């Protein structure tokens, strides 16, 4: 065996593949396997005559590996996102870029032509909203509250069902996205990591609402009640 020309290529490939199997990062593992298999291909191709069967078989393996490497890179990068998607992604930091793409491609974006009511207190909705606006109004039990965005609206109904406990109004010119909750639930149930990432994002969103929501024009001598934003 050691008398064969270019046999060192086989051993270089073997070392690279061994190191690949020792790392835990999937992208690095696949890159090292692809390069290691490339050395195998070079060895078989340089034989006299070339061992074409092995060249073709290993080329197929490299092609499959490179395809998956491309998928992993897309999962981890913001390449090919539109400017609007890049801006929205800043608010979805608990999601990977790939998870964000799966969610955002199911969204329908709208610019409010006037003050628009998205949720009505006491009514059901089959929509989840993401409000890409600096502020919006929440109306609960006859009192108006100013809330800061970006924020979600309807996430508790997405997770637990029931009705909206408050009315949500976005101002004219506000940009918002909406999803069908049934479609979004199916997407979440198909991927536990995605479901966990969205749950974490909703948790941050609820905490931000509690911290930033303030009453507008509270009645004189009557303290404004705390807004139960967790049910918006």
Task: Report on the architecture of this protein.
It is a single chain. This protein is an alpha+beta fold and 232 residues long. It has 2 domains: 7-76; 83-231, Jelly Rolls. It is built from 8 helices and 9 strands. A 5-stranded antiparallel beta sheet has the order 2-7-4-5-9, covered by helices on one side. A 4-stranded antiparallel beta sheet has the order 1-8-3-6. Strand 4 (135-140) and strand 5 (143-148) form a beta hairpin. The model is unreliable at 219-231 (pLDDT under 50).
Salient structural properties:
single chain, 232 residues, alpha+beta, Jelly Rolls, 2 domains, 5-stranded antiparallel beta sheet, 4-stranded antiparallel beta sheet, 8 helices, 9 strands, 49% helix, rod-shaped, cNMP-bd_dom_sf, transmembrane, RmlC-like_jellyroll, Cyclic nucleotide-binding domain-containing protein
What is the number of domains? 2
Named CATH architecture of the largest domain = Sandwich
Structural class given helices, strands, pairing? alpha+beta
> Measured on Cα atoms, how large is the radius of gyration?
27 Å
Strand order of the largest sheet: 2-7-4-5-9
Q: How does the major sheet shape up?
A: 5 strands, antiparallel
**Succession of helices and strands:** HHHHHEEEEEEHEEHHE
Count of distinct strands:
9
- What would you give as the CATH superfamily of the largest domain? Jelly Rolls
Assign the CATH topology of the largest domain.
Jelly Rolls
Determine the strand fraction and express it as a percent band: 15-25%
Count of runs of 4 or more consecutive helical residues: 8
Give the low-pLDDT segments: 219-231
- The CATH class name of the largest domain reads Mainly Beta
